[in-house]
Amino acid sequence: MVSGAEIKAEITAWRKGERARLRALRARLPAAERARADAAIAARLWEEFPALRQGAVGFYWPLAGELDLRALMGRLVAAGARAALPVIVEKDKPVEFWGWQPGAAMAAGFWGIQVPALREALAPDALLIPLVGFDDGGFRLGNGGGYYDRTLAALEPRPLAIGVGYELGRLATIHPQPHDVAMDAIVTEAGTRWRAGSPHAPRPMAAASASADAAAPGFSSPACALAEAPETYTGHLPPAELIAALNELLEAEKAGAKVAAAMAGEAEGTTLRATLAELRRDEAGCVAMLARHVRALGGAPSRKVGAFREKALPIEDAAARLAFLNRGQQWVVRRLGELLPKIRQDDLHRDLRAMLELHERNIARCAQVLATLDERPR
């Protein structure tokens, strides 16, 4: 059986490998391409986030190929903002933000990172946070210390959190864990992505122009009461049914992870073994995601494992068992296709859509491996 600790360790190892891979890609960016990307990102931050020109803005001292925002920060300070840099005052605790301006005296902090020489603690209204990688859920793959996650969880009120980095860092998922805090927006040279449900996200034009006496924010007609309608009226699942559906998927994903783990341990051939190991990791990441949403809905994640495991493990032939595993993934895709139109929550809809696409990719990969297994001499 695969324990929660083993799954967590596997995801941790995967993240470490992805950090190394993405840092290497970043280091190989041609100077001209990097300069164009830097200019595009700085322009987006200036033009699309006018609130950065006032209040306290936390940023970072660039390291190891990270985007350098010091020139932009100087421009923001000249426009009326107050800039601040993160300072580790106690290991593995939330950071403080100390005031900074161009030409300020600096000193070496933890790990030799430059910090303001004088402590002027500020409460940031916005944070510009460096990315190594990111996904469309707004989750960030950072440098691995966890300082920004701890800090964002502790700040009240929470500031606008903007992840900044290069588009090459985009991933299908970072396999977010309970401690990961999503960004409000992510800015790369390719564009700005707002997280669905962020309180800082720009309101749609229709909602912004709605009359002040509208019955509910975000609806253009005062006479429309859909914002107050029960889920069953609008076709969305009520919370109890939604929790049950998510737990059904969670049990199935646990079963898939355990079957893939068992098969990987017995697999002959590096391609099959690698495919099964990645499949196990993806299934485990989906388990963590589903459990997080069940808790957010006020439910308790199921501790059961789907019956699929007991049906799959007795199958002795590797190709037959992999084909059975693929049929299980196809069931998940069909179930997600049925559920998605009934999901009202933007963040859950986005994560389930990503889960569906992940399973579709894995189905195609398994089919390719099956084709090679079918060609084995018998």
Question: What is the element layout, followed by pairings?
Answer:
Elements: H1 4-27, H2 31-48, E1 56-58, H3 70-79, E2 82-87, E3 96-100, E4 106-108, E5 114-116, E6 126-130, E7 133-134, E8 140-141, H4 147-154, E9 160-164, E10 185-188, E11 191-194, H5 205-208, H6 231-234, H7 239-266, H8 270-296, H9 308-312, H10 318-339, H11 346-374
Parallel strand pairs: 1-2, 1-6, 6-9, 9-10
Antiparallel strand pairs: 2-3, 4-5, 7-8, 10-11
Helix pairs in contact: 7-8, 7-10, 8-11, 10-11
**What is the ordering of alpha helices and beta strands?**
HHEHEEEEEEEHEEEHHHHHHH
> What spatial order of strands do you see in the largest sheet?
3-2-1-6-9-10-11
**Radius of gyration, rounded?**
24 Å
The CATH H-level homologous superfamily of the largest domain: NagB/RpiA/CoA transferase-like
State the helix count: 11
Helicity range:
40-55%
> Which descriptor suits the 3D outline?
elongated
Give the biggest beta sheet: 7 strands, mixed
Quote the distance from N terminus to C terminus: 31 Å
Overall CATH class of the largest domain: Alpha Beta
CATH architecture of the largest domain: 3-Layer(aba) Sandwich
Low-pLDDT regions: 205-234
Total domains: 2
In words, what does this structure look like?
By secondary structure, the chain is of the alpha/beta class. The protein folds into two domains: 200 residues, Rossmann fold; 144 residues, Ferritin (Up-down Bundle), CATH 1.20.1260.10. The chain is built from eleven helices and eleven strands. Strands 3-2-1-6-9-10-11 form a seven-stranded mixed beta sheet, with helices on both faces. The chain has a two-stranded antiparallel ribbon with strand order 4-5. Strand 2 and strand 3 form a beta hairpin. Helix 7 runs antiparallel to helix 10. It is elongated, with a radius of gyration of 24 Å. The two termini are 31 Å apart. About 8% of the residues have low confidence.
